Amino acid sequence: MDTAFRPYRSVLYIPGSKERALDKARGLACDAIIFDLEDAVTPDAKGEARETLKAALAQDGYGERAKIIRINGLDTDWGADDVRVLKDAKAHAMLLPKVNSVADVEALDALMGETMDIWCMIETPLGVFNALEIAAHPRVKGFVAGTNDLAKELNCRNRADRLPMMFALQQMLLAARAYGVICVDGVYNQYLDEEGLAAECEQGRDLGFDGKTLIHPAQVEGANRAFAPSDAEVDLAKRQIAAHEEIEKTGQGVAVVDGKIVENLHVETAKKTLAKAEAIARMA
Ligand SMILES: CC(C)(COP(=O)(O)OP(=O)(O)OC[C@H]1O[C@@H](n2cnc3c(N)ncnc32)[C@H](O)[C@@H]1OP(=O)(O)O)[C@@H](O)C(=O)NCCC(=O)NCCSC(=O)C[C@H](O)C(=O)O
Ligand SMILES: [Mg+2]
């Protein structure tokens, strides 16, 4: 199933072991769900969580939300069984944690059927440096920044401006954009701090991320707001497209809107803004 042409403003992690949360998500306004079998599930609960998740996906009821299964690494005791049990589940993608190189993707590809896309957590130093070759793999359709693991690996301090991991975030974004791969920002751990989340979403949007991964339902609304085109952006996009169409009729290529030039490339961006707004409207 295709994971492109959808909004990914809010991508909510749900522990695969928590039946109540799996059920609650059916009524939440998130654009996508990551059903987690990795960090949110303790080792002794892995087998049961896998079966709980399989049953929840068979029951479905998640509507238009993109469904992404985060399995355990293939170098763990659980990864291969996760794939075996869930490869035919009704989901859009399988998310592989701690991807270091394209060889990790190839190993998953060899175990999976054809029905799901592959998404990759970029959260290790090697994963960051190899992001370009990972994004180039034809089955890879999404990247998720693992900012907790990145902070651990970097031994960096947790700063509001995320300066210590800026290189890594930008490198994964560039690689994703080079190959048309969706790229979603990491989580904001203080899940009840609305102001802090809003600031980090704003930064993520400024950088170019498609949306933010979330850990609690209270974060959904803030992410949806931050990553949707605003009314002013939609209005500007429409005016830019119209002004450029008009100027083209006169044989010229450069229009001016609100004192700023509008060329072909700006029209492309404006069209993307409208397409995103339409995709969001379809989610409602
Ligand atoms: C953070 C939590 C442990 C908080 O749980 P809890 O105290 O139970 O929250 P609330 O009582 O406020 O919950 C209120 C209701 O909302 C439901 N709920 C809670 N979380 C979720 C969720 N994620 N999805 C859906 N529904 C959720 C509760 O069931 C309550 O429902 P109800 O009883 O009907 O009112 C908890 O939120 C949690 O476990 N969050 C997910 C944590 C997680 O997935 N972590 C792993 C991903 S993060 C990561 O690994 C990132 C990456 O790899 C990296 O390196 O950075
Ligand atoms: Mg991680």
Automatic annotation (TrEMBL):
Pfam annotation, one family: HpcH_HpaI
Obligatory cofactor(s): Mg(2+)
Residues that, per the record, bind Mg(2+): 123, 149
Domain HpcH/HpaI aldolase/citrate lyase, first and last residues per copy: 9-217
Alphabetical UniProt keywords: Magnesium, Metal-binding
GO terms classed as biological process: oxaloacetate metabolic process
GO molecular function: catalytic activity; magnesium ion binding
UniProt: substrate binding residues: 70, 123
Entry keyword annotation includes Metal-binding: yes
UniProt superkingdom: Bacteria
PANTHER family: CITRATE LYASE SUBUNIT BETA, LYASE BETA SUBUNIT, PUTATIVE (AFU_ORTHOLOGUE AFUA_4G13030)-RELATED
Family: Belongs to the HpcH/HpaI aldolase family.
Record's protein name: (3S)-malyl-CoA thioesterase
